[in-house]
Amino acid sequence: MEPIIRKLSEGDWSGWPDDQVAARGKVTWKALQGVNDDEDTDMVLGVARVFKGESLEAHRHLQPETYYVLSGKGKVTIEHVEYEVETDTMVYIPGDALHQINNYDDEPLRILYLFATPNFADVIYKF
Asked: CATH second-level architecture of 14-119?
């Protein structure tokens, strides 16, 4: 296996198609690891970005997920329980748990996310 080196500053931010934003939320992300079929890794890692007043709406997926807040403040709701998060907060989300992210702060909320699965395409979001 070869090392994978990527910079967050490179590449474009992804987001939901315009016709899905109302149901899924206005969040953007950059998947940094586990994005190509030829990568021999066992995890997906990336950064999600949520601006003030925006959200990643309530959803679930089979894989557990871990968040680490890189910057900003907001709320992560897991199974209808709200948790305040800020820089340097870690959140573990069990597999198939309903969860959501909201940013109520002026600063963009940036969250490192991690899935224990080899490819981001394996993560099927259910809204």
From this structure: Sandwich (2.60)
Give the span between the Cα atoms of 23 and 32, in whole angstroms.
25
With residue 15 as reference, give the H or E element that holds it: strand 14-15
Provide the b/e sequence for 3-20 (b: ≥16 CB within 10 Å). eeeeeeeeeeeeebeeee
Domain ranges (residues) in the chain: 14-119
Among 36, 52, 29, residue whose Cα is nearest residue 114? 29
Tens digits of per-residue pLDDT, 9-36?
998 999 999 999 999 999 999 999 998 7
Q: What is the pTM of this model?
A: 0.93
User: CA dihedral defined by 36, 37, 42, 47, rounded to 10 degrees?
Assistant: 20
Q: Output the CA angle 78-104-79, nearest 5 degrees.
A: 10
